[in-house]
């Protein structure tokens, strides 16, 4: 899994806090600037919004609540 985020996003910060609190180590964190139209972000999320959790075998999750839930779920399973 890979979390695409911007340092300026409070929603991304919340997701990153949960990832650290749950000690999840299988999520790669990559800074992505939504205003730069970065290819990796646009491929995962055509709207270019962050945070965006890219999951290898599933569609990317773009909502911060879903990202926190997915991070929690992957920690307990």
UniProtKB/TrEMBL annotation:
Domain GST N-terminal: 1-77
Matches recorded under Pfam families: GST_N_2 (PF13409)
Database matches in InterPro entries: Glutathione_S-Trfase_N (IPR004045), Thioredoxin-like_sf (IPR036249)
Top-level division of the source organism's lineage: Bacteria
Protein name per its UniProtKB record: Glutathione S-transferase N-terminal domain-containing protein
Source organism (scientific name): Spartinivicinus marinus
